[in-house]
Design a protein that fits this description.
Elements (H helix, E strand, L loop, with lengths): L32 H9 L4 H10 L4 H23 L1 H5 L3 H4 L1 H4 L5 H30 L3 H18 L1 H27 L16 H16 L18 H29 L5 H12 L3 H35 L6 H21 L4 H30 L21 H14 L4 E5 L2 E4 L1 H5 L6 H16 L5 H22 L1
Antiparallel strand pairs: 1-2
Length: 485
């Protein structure tokens, strides 16, 4: 395992990527986690998710309930991943080699890389549509600026992402609070809807699943941003910080989105936010909408950073590489070009773009998150030989058949329950989904099946044999940590 010393400086470009972070470089702070994940969801992407229920006839109240329950489930999975960062000092997908193998990790890496790129493509489309509808700005120019800005933020890396997110949050939080209070007291405008909104099982589950997917799809990110925390950081506090940060912001803006859709008849979240805010106080909506768009652009940097880690992990799995600064920069620039080109080729309304991307990401990620968390909390119980994760023929094998099989079984079992939104002229509704009147429970099936399958398959795993390797790894890491001190 290769690691080089890093001296954190306010202006420094991060040098680490997929390598282990030594204890003497763990300069992260627990209180940084909640603002990061709060701002990560306190942006324009969250608002159109609140449109999904109303677009299917769900009332504001039921949309809020569905969002609350979905976020409670999805964020719980996300937050539990956060505990792996301080304990292991590794990016999420390097740790996944323990379940899927040194090269077998390429399977969930495909799902995670798809997630990062899909998010940025969707973000780019939403920014273009929103800023065009709100300010009349050219969507193509916005796409270029967003891609360049996100790439720069990702290049500077972990510390700058934390700083930038906190700075935006400090400005946007009080202004959005004023806007929301204005809406609650009736100053946001709007009128009673002409269409009927009530309860529908299909609409409720669509909103529930979208809300759950929103934070489950953050699962591959979380330990990437907690890996600089000291090893002795209390796990419960990490979970709580991430959970309440990510869930609180998302619920706030999804609920606001439902109100914008029903009471203002908004079809674009940013334009609706602008109108409601300007109704409360002159130009308040202009400012809040811009800050919301800026926050969304910042999350594109987060996606680019995670995508870079995934690409380098994939390359390293077949040809060991040195995790240099140059490798980080080249990978991030390449990803920016890819998502920009795809985003420019996509057309469609914002709600369909959000729903389609979240649905696809959820189906791909659910078997991975189930396998990873079951392994960490129930099978190996947080005990890993870190150095072995960087050895092609180490104790975790090249292709770890148990994890790969559990992932495959879970994904295959999802297929009859899937409801894929229309993509061009093609759509898909599984046999069981059609019998359930279009209610989508595929991701719930995937979670349950992959978890049970992995638990059953790992009953034959020789954990006692791994203890020797774990102790040797600790000795090696302690010596390395001492050299870098």
């Amino acid at each position: 395992m290769t690691t080089t010393p890093e001296a954190p400086r306010a202006s420094a470009i991060e040098t680490r990527s997929i390598d282990w972070v030594p204890e003497n470089e763990r300069h992260g702070r627990l209180w940084h986690q909640a603002p990061l994940w709060f701002l990560g969801n306190f942006q324009y992407f969250s608002i159109p998710i609140g449109f999904i229920g109303p677009s299917l006839g769900l009332s504001i109240g039921w949309t809020v309930v569905a969002s609350l329950l979905g976020l409670a489930v999805g964020t719980l999975f996300m937050a539990f991943h956060a505990t792996q960062g301080p304990q292991m000092g590794l990016p999420q997908m390097i740790q996944s080699r323990a379940q899927f193998g040194y090269r077998g990790v390429i399977v969930p890496l495909f799902a995670t890389l798809f997630t990062y790129v899909a998010f940025n493509v969707t973000d780019q489309v939403l920014l273009g549509l929103g800023l065009d509808a709100t300010y009349g700005w050219n969507a193509h120019v916005i796409a270029v600026i967003a891609a360049v800005g996100a790439a720069l933020l990702a290049i500077y890396g972990h510390d700058w992402l934390h700083r930038f997110f906190r700075a935006i949050l400090y400005v946007s939080l009080p202004l959005t609070t004023i806007l929301t209070v204005g809406v609650l007291v009736g100053a946001g405008g709007g009128h009673a809807p002409s269409a009927h909104f009530g309860f529908s099982g299909v609409a409720f589950m669509a909103q529930f699943s979208a809300a759950a997917a929103y934070n489950i799809t953050y699962a591959p990110y979380v330990s990437d941003y907690s890996r600089y925390l000291p090893t002795d950081t209390p796990a419960k506090k990490v979970i709580a910080s991430v959970f309440f940060g990510a869930a609180g912001a998302a619920l706030w803006l999804m609920s606001l989105g439902a109100w914008l859709a029903v009471r203002l008849g908004a079809s674009d979240g940013l334009a609706g936010l602008q109108l409601a805010g300007n109704n409360v106080i002159g130009h308040l909506g202009d400012i809040v909408a811009f800050l919301s768009a800026l926050a969304l652009a910042a999350t594109m940097g987060m996606n680019a950073y995670g995508g870079m880690l995934s690409v380098l992990t994939a390359i390293d799995s077949f040809k060991p590489i040195k995790p240099t600064k140059s490798a980080r920069i080249i990978t991030i620039v390449g990803l920016a070009v890819v998502w920009y080109v795809i985003g420019e080729a996509i057309t469609g309304n914002a709600v369909n773009t959000v729903l389609s991307s979240l649905t696809l990401m959820l189906y791909l990620l659910v078997p991975w998150t189930a396998t990873n968390l079951v392994d960490y909390f129930f099978v190996r119980r947080g005990h890993y030989a870190i150095t072995e994760l960087f050895r092609p023929h180490g104790i975790y094998d090249v292709w770890a058949w148990r994890g790969l099989l559990a992932y495959a079984i879970g994904f295959v079992c999802e297929i009859p329950f899937m409801i894929l939104p229309t993509l061009g002229s093609w759509s898909y509704t599984g046999w069981f989904a059609s019998k359930l009147n279009g209610v989508d429970i595929a991701w719930i099936v995937g979670l349950a099946v992959s978890s049970i399958a992995y638990l059953a398959l790992t009953r034959s795993l020789d954990l006692a044999a791994e203890k020797t390797a774990e102790q040797a790894s600790r000795t090696e890491l302690a010596a390395l940590d001492g050299e870098l001190a």
